[in-house]
Amino acid sequence: MRPLTVITCECCRLRQQVRGSIGDERRVDMCAMCFEHRGADNGMTQRRRTEHDAMLRERLVRAEQLTQSAYSERDRARQRMLAAFQSRDSAFSILKTVNDLHEFRRDGSCSCGVKRDCKTAAVVYRGWVQAMIRRLDDAEAEQRDE
Length: 146
Ligand SMILES: [Zn+2]
Ligand SMILES: [Zn+2]
Ligand SMILES: [Zn+2]
Fold this sequence. Notes:
Blueprint (H helix, E strand, L loop, with lengths): L3 E5 L6 E5 L12 H5 L5 H60 L17 H6 L2 H19 L1
Antiparallel strand pairs: 1-2
Helix pairs in contact: 2-4
Bound molecules: zinc ion (3 copies).
């Protein structure tokens, strides 16, 4: 079996997949469909026109379907992203609220009222939590700027 190659057909001018490659002993410059309707008599000329019409129409339909499915795939991806953002945002907001409620004071007590070693404050003061809260603040500032 010869390998598949893509050519621009001499006859229909469409890009077509053909068996065999350009440059081999049986040079391929026509697609299989066009090979069938080659010839110069009136019957063939007519047939060529009809078949080219059908080929073009088929190409258009396929291109449209591809565009459609690309669109709906993109829409689904956008929906998933929005949902992820929303749940992430609310998780961040909760974290931020907790952060605002538990602030260590100079004397080691916490703004929530716990005099010593507030366990919640200890959690929110971890580096990665602070980094997340900063990111949330930045995102909010960006939204306000828009
Ligand atoms: Zn062709
Ligand atoms: Zn043709
Ligand atoms: Zn606290």
